[in-house]
TrEMBL record:
<protein>
    <submittedName>
        <fullName>Baseplate assembly protein</fullName>
    </submittedName>
</protein>
<comment type="similarity">
    <text>Belongs to the Mu gp47/PBSX XkdT family.</text>
</comment>
<feature type="domain" description="Baseplate J-like C-terminal">
    <location>
        <begin position="264"/>
        <end position="344"/>
    </location>
</feature>
<dbReference type="InterPro" id="IPR058531">
    <property type="entry name" value="Baseplate_J_M"/>
</dbReference>
<feature type="domain" description="Baseplate J-like central">
    <location>
        <begin position="181"/>
        <end position="257"/>
    </location>
</feature>
<dbReference type="Pfam" id="PF26079">
    <property type="entry name" value="Baseplate_J_C"/>
</dbReference>
<dbReference type="Pfam" id="PF26078">
    <property type="entry name" value="Baseplate_J_M"/>
</dbReference>
<dbReference type="InterPro" id="IPR052399">
    <property type="entry name" value="Phage_Baseplate_Assmbl_Protein"/>
</dbReference>
<dbReference type="InterPro" id="IPR058530">
    <property type="entry name" value="Baseplate_J-like_C"/>
</dbReference>
Length: 349
């Protein structure tokens, strides 16, 4: 809005104003009038820069993080905080709760017994770093009889603090689609804001009147695990009773599922780009594409997937591309979640 109010623009306008009063006044560079106005124009230009910055801070679509948080707090929303990962720990004996272990640079604490020798282990540091940290544990405290200890499975992913642009986009969606009175948008909000949930899909009246099914993914947009499903079920409608003991209103019987995995296999021939010796980055790119459409699109696009492969720097060309044995879009029904289970690309050049 104020980007045109530069030093040169202001200086020219002020000099013209002086000359409009008396054209005989010396306004050349170095004159008393010029030097006096130059100092003023410089300060004014700085003020206009500050005004432009302040103006951007006042609107959610341009505000920096701190100001964005203050704006959005007026609507009752805040960035999702970082959460701690919970993993499955397996031991040769039962261990005391609150026992501490380490793996690499991270430490874990036993918070709940699952079964004999199996516990929920919570990372002591919030964030996503622990999500892939599996392997043998080292006991920080002496536990008599302990011989083996390891983290074997991620139960609930840890999350980093919500990023600025993700928070901004969530606020935009909140304003465009108000959630209230148990409408579909509110069910989506309950699910998508729950720690560990990546995305959700709501199925009203899925099993008759007053029933709702909520299918959820984890933060990698893969089918949610049993622990996350049970914890979110307890949060939204304990026991699927519709008694209003959770977030859902009275009379609404909510069933939480982790979605149904739809296996996606991809094969074909590729020609590598110059300087590459492998199909580097293709697997990750396809996974990212599938994650981007989970619960948002009703099919895996044959053309879009092919384009995803061609967009990889390591690939110069592709042919004979086949998805699930065919050359057509793969339909996603209901709560199906596309998961890449097989990738076989033959390098032909």
């Amino acid at each position: 809005m104020f980007e045109n109010f530069t030093f040169d623009f202001l200086m020219q306008r002020m000099l013209q104003r002086v000359q409009s009063f008396d054209s005989a006044i010396d306004t050349s560079e170095g004159s008393v009038i010029y030097n006096s106005l130059a100092a003023c124009a410089w300060e004014l230009a700085e003020n206009y820069i500050d005004m432009d910055t302040i103006l951007n801070m006042a609107f959610a679509d341009t505000a920096p993080r701190d100001e964005l948080i203050r704006i959005v707090q007026e609507y009752g929303l805040e960035p999702k905080p970082a959460t701690k990962a919970i993993l499955k720990g397996e031991f040769n004996i039962d261990i005391p709760l609150m026992s501490r272990f380490s793996l690499g640079a991270l430490s874990y604490i036993s918070i709940e017994k699952i079964s004999t020798g199996t516990y929920k282990m919570e990372c002591e540091i919030a964030g996503a770093e622990a999500n892939t940290n599996l392997g043998p544990l080292t006991s920080i405290e002496f536990i008599e009889g302990l011989e083996t200890a390891s983290l074997t499975e991620l139960l609930i992913p840890g999350l980093d603090e919500e990023g600025t642009e993700a928070f901004r986009e969530r606020f935009r969606n909140y304003m465009k689609n108000p959630s209230q009175d148990g409408n579909l948008t509110q069910y989506e909000q309950w699910a998508n804001e729950y720690p560990g949930v990546g995305r959700s899909k709501i199925f009203p009246l899925w099993n008759g009147g007053n029933t709702v099914k909520v299918a959820i993914t984890n933060t990698d947009y893969l089918p949610a695990g049993s622990t996350l499903i049970s914890e979110f079920q307890e949060y939204i409608d304990p026991g699927i009773e519709g008694k209003g003991n959770g977030a859902a209103p009275i009379g609404s019987k909510v069933t939480v599922t982790g979605g149904t995995q739809k296996n996606i296999s991809v094969s074909g021939n590729v020609i590598l780009a110059e300087g590459y010796t492998s199909t580097e980055g293709v697997y990750e790119a396809i996974k990212e594409y599938l994650a981007s459409i989970t619960f948002l699109k009703n099919s895996v696009s044959y053309m879009r997937l092919g384009s995803t492969i061609l967009d990889c720097p390591s690939i110069a060309d592709t042919n004979n591309l086949v998805i699930n044995g065919g050359v057509v879009d793969i339909v996603l029904n209901g709560d199906e979640i596309p998961v890449l289970t097989s990738l076989n690309l033959v390098v032909t050049g």
